[in-house]
């Protein structure tokens, strides 16, 4: 049961990170392709966006490990 | 690109200041488990920050050169978080899990605070 719970937690965390990062990177690539001179600004915004999106899945991974080891 | 590198170095500097505070806390206070856990989480979060910076830089370069980039390293960052959790759960006499998670979040919190500080500074210059 613990293994199933951990697997669900990690799976959903990865799904959230994947979808969020996919949207962010897609928009950033589009922006850089349109205006290459804005690369620094767009990269900085992407950096912050990816950091915000990945924070919660990381906590999800840690919680799944805790659940797995109980 | 220098701006991006400068941002990374600035954030690394802030995280290293925090790491030095945690080390002092570990050395001079009675809360050794708490501060050691924070140190573990913060060290791993430095790797995460470096990985994220490098991958995003590579992605930007690849878009300009019309090359492909397969990943931005999300799986490796999640694996680093899993490593920190595994070490903390393996040695409960030395590490506690909650401060490890706080340490892992250090780089992300520093990124947000740095962004807000830079925004405030730039608004002050334009005003």
From TrEMBL, chain A:
Keywords: ATP synthesis, Cell membrane, CF(0), Hydrogen ion transport, Hydrolase, Ion transport, Lipid-binding, Membrane, Transmembrane, Transmembrane helix, Transport
Residue numbers marked as site, Reversibly protonated during proton transport: 54
Source organism superkingdom: Bacteria
GO molecular function, one term: proton-transporting ATP synthase activity, rotational mechanism
An example Gene Ontology CC term for this record: plasma membrane
Transmembrane segments: 46-68
Span of domain V-ATPase proteolipid subunit C-like: 4-66
Keyword Transcription regulation (UniProt): no
Pfam name, any one: ATP-synt_C
Membrane topology: Multi-pass membrane protein
Subcellular location: Cell membrane; Membrane
InterPro entries: ATP_synth_csu_bac/chlpt, ATP_synth_F0_csu, ATP_synth_F0_csu_DDCD_BS, ATP_synth_F0_csu_sf, ATPase_proteolipid_c-like_dom, F/V-ATP_Csub_sf
Function in brief: F(1)F(0) ATP synthase produces ATP from ADP in the presence of a proton or sodium gradient. F-type ATPases consist of two structural domains, F(1) containing the extramembraneous catalytic core and F(0) containing the membrane proton channel, linked together by a central stalk and a peripheral stalk. During catalysis, ATP synthesis in the catalytic domain of F(1) is coupled via a rotary mechanism of the central stalk subunits to proton translocation.
HAMAP family, per database record: ATP_synth_c_bact
Family stated for the protein in its record: Belongs to the ATPase C chain family.
Protein name: ATP synthase subunit c
Lineage of the species this protein comes from: Bacteria, Bacillati, Bacillota, Bacilli, Bacillales
Automatic annotation (TrEMBL), chain B:
Residue ranges of the TM segments: 12-28, 34-52, 72-89, 95-117
Membrane topology term: Multi-pass membrane protein
Record's subcellular location: Cell membrane
Domain of life: Bacteria
One Pfam family this sequence matches: ATP-synt_I
Keyword line: Cell membrane, Membrane, Transmembrane, Transmembrane helix
Gene Ontology CC: one annotated term: plasma membrane
Keyword Cell membrane attached: yes
PANTHER family (alphabetical): ATP SYNTHASE PROTEIN I
Protein name (database record): ATP synthase protein I
Organism whose genome encodes this protein: Parageobacillus caldoxylosilyticus NBRC 107762
UniProt lineage: Bacteria, Bacillati, Bacillota, Bacilli, Bacillales
